[in-house]
Amino acid sequence: MSSVLENLVNQPYRHGFVTDIESDTAPKGLSEDTIRLISSKKNEPEWLLEFRLKAYRHWLTMAEPAWPNVKYPKIDFQEIIYYSAPRPKKLASMDEVDPELLKTFEKLGVPMNERAKLAGVAVDVIFDSVSVATTYKQKLAEVGILFCSISEAVREHPELVRKHIGSVVPPGDNYYAALNSAVFTDGSFCYIPKGVKCPMELSTYFRINTQESGQFERTLIVAEEGATVSYLEGCTAPKFDSNQLHAAVVELVALDNAEIKYSTVQNWYAGDENGVGGIYNFVTKRGLCKGVNSKISWTQVETGSAITWKYPSCVLLGDNSIGEFYSVALTNHHQQADTGTKMVHIGKNTRSRIISKGISAGQSNNSYRGLVKIGPRAENARNFSQCDSMLVGSKCGANTFPYIQVQNNGATVEHEATTSRIGEEQLFYFASRGIGAEEAVSMIINGFCRDVFQQLPMEFAVEATKLLGLKLEGSVG
Amino acid sequence: MSAVGAKHPYIESLLRGYEMPRSGISWLNERRAQALERANALTVPTTRDEEWRFTDITPLTRVQFQPAAGAPRPAMADLSRFIVPEAAARLVFVDGAFAPALSVTAGLPQGVVVSPLAAALDAHAWEIEPHLARHAEYEREVFIALNTAHLRDGAFVRIARNRSHPAPVQIIHVSTRKEAAAYPRCLVIAEAGAECTLIEDYAGLGDAVYFNDAVTEIVAGEGACVRHVRLQRESGGAFHIATCAASLARNARYVSHTITLGARLSRFNLNVVQQGEGAEIEMDGLALISGRQLADTHSLMDHARPSGRCQQAHRCIVGGAAHAVFNGKIVVRPGAQLTDSAQQSRNLLLSDRARVDTKPQLEIFADDVKCAHGATVGQLDPEQVFYLRSRGLSTERARSLLTYAFAAELIDRIPVPSLVERLEETVLAQTQGNERA
After folding, report:
1. Is residue B244 domain-resident?
2. Domain stops at, among B255, B276, B297
3. Helices (H), A197-265
4. Does the CB of B417 have a partner CB in chain A at under 8 Å?
5. H or E element, residue A2
6. How distant, in Å, are the alpha carbons of A274, A354, A392, B331 from that of A11?
7. In-domain check, residue B4
8. What is the pLDDT of residue A236?
């Protein structure tokens, strides 16, 4: 690897600062008391506390999954702070938001006011675990869309939350989903009523601030019949030497003819170049195409986290429903990613499409793990999957584990995978055209990821392109 | 000396009455003892084990199998349909025991040894010692451990340096007895520059329920070439669990054709390790199953050294309520640059109760490599069916012809003409059988 490539990859983490805000923090450790504390702090109804306790009791009986292709020291769940909130203060408008906090967002490059206005984006900001402010709520309320923190939704619309929470990812679904169900502190809730097309992109920004705090947010999006919504999520965290756990659950429900598009740009702190620190990102994301002709589309750009372990999935229950998954996962230094998707075809004429691009650099390890399952009643189901890997440097690894399970002979499933690298010859060609190595790498990567970037909303696409460039600085040469 | 004291009751039952085969060769006694120790310690895999996720071997564990003793000897006439006329040498094992009367080992050219393993141990010990039970790892696989603990006899084929032996060597394992367990074993050594063709044939006479736990080890020296045809045509009630471990030196070539037709439940592990630079591998696999059969193939292509090339094609044709499983793993180790490895898994489902689970898997730790895999599951292309119908064929006939063609593409590549002919007949009969069903 030449020095140009090396410098390219070793760009320092730009979002690594700690915001000093007084926060209301629960003592370390996990027990039924911790859960009761969280529940009481948030003034939750009894059924939710029951939901949490049930999940917790189930979690106690479960074992940490060993099958992902990632290595990390055992997590001590008693060393984690499960609740950390900025001191409560009633916020009437954005102007009342803690200036420290606003500065944080500025440093992150998300000046909320401006960005919201310019881009027409409504941002629900999750800082550690409590939603700080929600903009554009008014405008959304006019068309009947509910977009608020999940805690607020529990207070204001308990019947909706109660109906859908845990319906896609049951509390005992897997180890981390059970943990999340027990201790989730906040997250976003979005409800699009029947026939409404959401007039703007909805967006959430997550940030983990306190050292040793785990972030357990929970997102629930429900699109009623004929509703359409596009939802964006971005994530960052400051630099700490210790590892932080992030175990989120995202549930999407699409009813007849509804469409949900969910995009993520994940740039949690990935640890330093020696693999010290960084976020453990163990996330369960699942969408349920409950109604006929419904559609759920996941787009993700995963560049951060020391370890990523997530499989945004679609359960295609309704006839003619469509699931899509577009992913770019980039790993560098000692990062490990085991990510992919699950497409579970249950209804007739269901279709799914998977495009996954994995880029590994440094000493990182990048795995695609996917499942395409065609149930016995999924007549005429169709799937196309493509997962390509690119290796930058000779010390990294790229793996693919696609599971294909077919129980219906009317189904057509296609899967393709390739592996390639940025070769000396390609760089030489660029050089002969007067394009330096860094720019050449950035162009090659962008070409490689084009199919996925095209799916991102415009501003995110620009950001993602830049992010990949930054992440890879110094890895080619 | 280890004694039987298995952790798992089923393994205990398989080892009931076990007596360690005695021989004066200390290294062999030692390996058997170690294998027995592992068999005692390991448990029967369940669907909770990733490697056995889709293959539930509970039906196997419901039957008590005992090693066959004093089995009836079939006559030559019973075997005639299995015999390949091109073969220059033939070893026949009946229910795991060598049958000299049915075998042909005479008249081989110098440098070519085809012999029962037990008889070869004295004369060829120095050649056998570095390889026997050294490539098929009994440390982790209970069925390899069981086979190795029972290692008494087997087939031994050795081609000396730079010798070419173009006529195929056929090894037939015939099973006749119900509720008998056999542990077939085979060791093939092709020295540097040697060339040979091996036909390994597992056949059942009658419809008995029996269990074959087979292990084959193949060693190809520098620049050697081994062609390996493996036929699994066990009886419809049989259980067949087998491992073939091939180790390839620099520039060696290994071409394998695996045909799976029989057994109620079969599992075949094909583990190929490229130990030297520039080895070349071709792996064809065809499973043609129906009824309630389950056929599981797990292949591992381990590119441990640079510049290896591998082409793999695996096809399953699944009718009735049968279930085909394929797991094809390609590993490119750190430093194995310039590897070129490609894998295709294609599956045809002929009925609405048929099921396929396929998992191609790439694990790549070197950057200058070309690796690709593809997998498809589907039914026959309606346009092709339509085309044949426009030529006057009935839908059923068009379908069976296309199914036949799907299989014939792989069968045609088998380097033994008489076998190609007979297999194509088998496939045709079966696809027409499906036609009627």
Report:
1. yes
2. B276
3. none
4. no
5. none
6. 13, 31, 15, 31
7. no
8. 58
Q: Give the integer Cα–Cα distance in Å for A266 and A236.
A: 7
- For every residue of A154-182, DSSP letters joined together read HHH-HHHHHHHTTSSS-TTSSHHHHHHHH
Query: CA-nearest residue of chain A to B334?
Result: A395
Is A398 in CB contact (< 8 Å) with chain B?
Answer: yes
Least confident of A243-257, A446-460, B221-235, B320-334: A446-460
Say if residue B252 is in the same domain as residue B401.
no
Rounded to 5 degrees, what angle do the CA atoms A133, A139, A142 make? 125
Mean pLDDT of chain B: 92
Q: Which of B276, B301, B320 is the last residue of a domain?
A: B276
- Any bridge partners for residue A223, and if so which? A192, A254
Residues of A in contact with B360 (CB under 8 A): 400, 402, 415, 417
So what's the pLDDT on residue B127?
A: 93
Least confident range of A233-247, A335-349, B44-58, B326-340: A233-247
The residue of B316, B339, B367 whose CB has the most chain A CBs within 10 angstroms, and thus the best one to mutate to test that interface, is: B367
Candidates A415, A437, A439, A438; CA nearest to A428 is: A437
pLDDT reading at B236 higher than 80: yes
pLDDT in tens, A437-456: 888 888 888 888 888 888 88
Q: Which two tokens stand for residue A209?
A: 């601030």
Which ranges of A313-387 does DSSP label H, i.e. alpha helix? none
The pLDDT of residue A477 is 43
Q: Which residues pair with A263 in a beta bridge?
A: A232, A299
Distance from CA of B390 to the nearest CA of A (A): 22
Indicate whether B178 belongs to any domain: yes
**Domain-by-domain residue ranges, chain A?**
3-472
E-state strands within A39-168: 84-86, 122-127, 130-134, 146-149
Helix (H) or strand (E) segment spanning residue A95: none
Q: How many domains does chain B have?
A: 2
Q: Taking CB atoms and an 8 Å limit, are A420 and B370 in contact across chains?
A: yes
Among chain B residues, the shortest Cα distance to A369 is held by: B361
> What is the spatial distance between Cα A181 and Cα B193, in angstroms, rounded to a whole number?
63
**Collapsed DSSP state (helix, strand, coil) of residue A434:** coil
Q: Name the residue range of residue B71's domain.
A: 9-276
The per-residue pLDDT for range B279-337, each reduced to its tens digit, is 999 999 999 999 999 999 999 999 999 999 999 999 999 999 999 999 999 999 988 99
Predicted pLDDT of residue B436: 52
Q: Cα dist. A76→A26, A37, A73, A276, A293 in Å? A: 17, 20, 9, 17, 44
Percent of chain B with pLDDT strictly greater than 70: 97
Residues of chain B contacting residue A402, judged by C-beta atoms under 8 Å apart: 359-361, 375
Q: What is the mean pLDDT of residues A282-286?
A: 93
Residue B197 lies in a domain: yes
3-state secondary structure of B103: coil
A-to-B residue pairs, Cβ atoms closer than 8 angstroms? 110
